Amino acid sequence: MSVLSEPHFHNEEAAFERLEAIVWPEGPVCPKCGNCEQNRITRVTGTTARTGLRRCLECKKQFTVKVGTVFESSHVPLHKWWQAAHLLASSKKGISAHQLHRTLQVQYKTAWFMFHRLREAMRDGVLSPMGGEGKHVEVDETYIGRLKGAPVKAGGSHKNTVVTLVERGGRARSFHVDTARMGNVMPIVRANIARESALMTDESGIYRRAEQDFASHDFVTHSKDEYIRGDVNTNTVEGYYSIFKRGMKGIYQHCGEQHLHRYLAEFDFRYSNRIALGVDDNNRTVRAMAGIVGKRLKYRDSSGVGAE
């Protein structure tokens, strides 16, 4: 039986119950006053009551599980949000808003905005240090898209610059930076990687002083066709970029600079919650939905619709 045949993908009441179990594992919590006394929160019933509506007897406010999340004020049925989350979480290279528009039978701009809200939910809000004693973290930079109004130049200066940190056998974390310079990249590396880690990079001068900050720093010299030397390589982060670029070029095709950080969050999320780490498509979807709390993204904040 298909995962998508489960009730919460088709039935609105089941969709609310499934989300409530994730967001409120110990029962409803009022997002207005913080009341969590179950005997002081009642379910609003009646023929005109919205699905999942509750009333707090402390502050007298009504709310659903969507309040205080990326779903707040959305008129899209919650079961369609579940479908969209599953499609985005389970597609290795992503899925276009045009495809979602056709699949869910919603307007294109609605599909586009739904995906950006879900990417916001996927964004890692707790940036604990990567790596640690005995662990290897690879760092590399790449170039994607094209800066608006920038003439094409050699070396990628006309493109958006991305820096990615990948812990071998673990998570990925990516950042959009102005330029690939030591002053832009190394503060990110220091802030996100534990000092006890072994750092792996290429021969770029960006990292020439990195041994001062970590247990060790080794690099491969790509300009001399050196790609691996013992356990020294950047193959893991390059594998991440291979998936990222195929998704951005083949699926999304166009990405405005103002949206790039959310696409990075999407690819980081799927990589950090991949099958190799014991996370299947269903659990990955649940983890994405667990990230909706405390995040908002309004349509005007997303700076208009971009092509996908």
Automatic annotation (TrEMBL):
> Which InterPro entries does the UniProt entry name for this protein?
IS1016-like_transposase (IPR053164), Tnp_ISXO2-like (IPR024445), Transposase_Zn_ribbon (IPR024442)
Per UniProt, residues of the ISXO2-like transposase domain are: 129-272
Q: Which Pfam families match?
A: DDE_Tnp_IS1595 (PF12762), Zn_ribbon_IS1595 (PF12760)
Q: Which PANTHER family match?
A: DDE_TNP_IS1595 DOMAIN-CONTAINING PROTEIN, SI:DKEY-17M8.2
| UniProt-recorded name of the protein | IS1595 family transposase
Query: What organism does the UniProt record list as the source?
Result: Mesorhizobium helmanticense
What does UniProt list as this organism's lineage? Answer: Bacteria, Pseudomonadati, Pseudomonadota, Alphaproteobacteria, Hyphomicrobiales
